[in-house]
Write a structure and sequence with these properties.
single chain, about 400 residues, Rossmann fold, globular, Glyco_trans_4-like_N, Glycosyltransferase_grp1, transferase, Glycosyl transferase family 1, glycosyltransferase activity
């Protein structure tokens, strides 16, 4: 079989109703599949106000809003409508991108029909409880995730550091890589715009520390704020530029009253905002890849990031940026102080980051996942089935 023989049923917890890096990668991948001649059907919760138009055919799955985070939805069952559509579509592979109830039922459906299932891992769900005072739930959530992923023929992670963590957590025997690409037309050092910076009240000589992403607590907003406080105490010259929207925006603005908030940006406007920063500060430990880190690198920015999954695979310590122990406020402040005060080191790290980002092209990235699809289908045709545990 080649790619034109693929009939993929993709199950997503959020395909297009809230914009984030994970669902944009899924939409880009579906577009790639369709251009190669594959057939794809997507099953996901939907809303009347989607963030963007979906790639491919999208079938709505029953869902309810997440308590306390109503912008997100949970699909709670595989409805009769979804089952009938699946029967009519006749997939030969099931792809699940979220370990939600619909994802569990999709894997069960695949197993009942003798079809291979592939899961893509997009975030570290087991780390989320610690940001809401529920850290004691982490081991339970990890166990539930392990049960889910072990029922799949293969799982793919967006970075080698995340893949290694999944192996250590005994999530699967078969852990591959489906990384992320970069749009070089949007993210490029030439997008830097000093006039735009000046319009925001940023002087040319002000070192700009950037934050990019959804404004939610699990992105490490508390660590970011505490670190900026340290820079103020040290009287380090800097400006903070925050690009993004989210439910924690009011909290973040209250913590950083001198920061500049642009709100949500996309396309060329996002490229301009990123390139107009001088460094990225990414203290999050929940990313499995870190799209914003790659975007910043492509724009010529050094990155100061938590030593965690995703960032470890992108940032070369001391070359393209700094990797700091998660939560180490003083060490984060030391690294940012160096880049704020030393323009030569900043430029050298940024140039190295641009060279590193050149390796990430979307077509090559997406073909790697197609190759995984074809491999598991071939293995199933030869009698292979998912193994229940990657350890004795």
């Amino acid at each position: 079989m080649n790619v034109t023989g693929l009939r993929v049923a993709l199950f997503s917890g959020n395909y297009n109703y809230v914009r984030d890096g994970a669902n944009q990668a899924l939409n880009r991948f579906v577009g790639y599949l369709l251009r190669q001649g594959a057939a794809v059907r997507v099953y996901s919760p939907t809303t009347d106000t989607p963030a963007f138009e979906p790639a491919g055919d999208l079938v709505s799955a029953p869902s309810f809003p997440v308590p306390g985070r109503k912008e997100y939805r949970v699909s709670y069952c595989m409805s009769g409508h979804v089952r009938r559509d699946l029967k009519s579509f006749r997939p030969n592979l099931v792809h699940v991108s979220s370990p939600d109830p619909l994802g569990h039922r999709a894997v069960s459906w695949a197993r009942r029909h003798g079809l291979p299932a592939v899961a893509s891992v997009h975030t570290r769900f087991e780390t989320y409880p610690r940001y809401y005072g529920l850290a004691f739930l982490e081991s339970t959530i990890e166990s539930l995730l392990r049960r889910f992923y072990r029922r799949c023929d293969a799982i793919v992670a967006p970075s080698e550091s995340m893949a290694q963590l999944l192996r250590e957590q005994r999530m699967s025997y078969d852990v591959g890589i489906w990384t992320r690409g970069i749009d070089r037309e949007i993210f490029h050092p030439d997008r830097r715009d000093l006039g735009w910076r000046r319009s925001l009240g940023i002087a040319d000589e002000d070192p700009v520390i950037g934050f990019i992403g959804r404004l939610v607590m699990e992105k490490g907003l508390d660590v970011f704020s505490d670190t900026i406080d340290q820079l103020a105490l040290r009287q380090v010259r800097h400006k903070v530029l925050v690009v993004g929207e989210g439910p924690a925006r009011e909290w973040f603005q209250n913590r950083l009253p001198k920061a500049i908030f642009t709100g949500f940006q996309q396309g060329a406007d996002l490229g301009r905002a990123v390139a107009s920063m001088d460094m990225l500060f990414n203290p999050s430990i929940t990313e499995t890849f870190g799209n914003v880190t790659l975007e910043a690198m492509a724009c010529g920015l050094p990155t100061v990031a938590a030593r965690a999954t995703g960032s470890e695979s992108l940032v070369s310590e001391g070359v393209t940026g700094r990797l700091i122990r998660p939560g180490a406020i003083g060490a984060f402040a030391d690294a940012l102080t160096t880049y704020c005060n030393d323009a030569d080191r900043r430029r050298a790290a940024g140039a190295a980051a641009v060279a590193e980002a050149e390796r990430y092209g979307w077509d090559q990235v997406n073909q790697a996942l197609v190759d995984t699809y074809l491999r598991v289908i071939r293995q199933r045709s030869q009698g292979a089935t998912p193994r229940s545990s990657p350890v004795p």
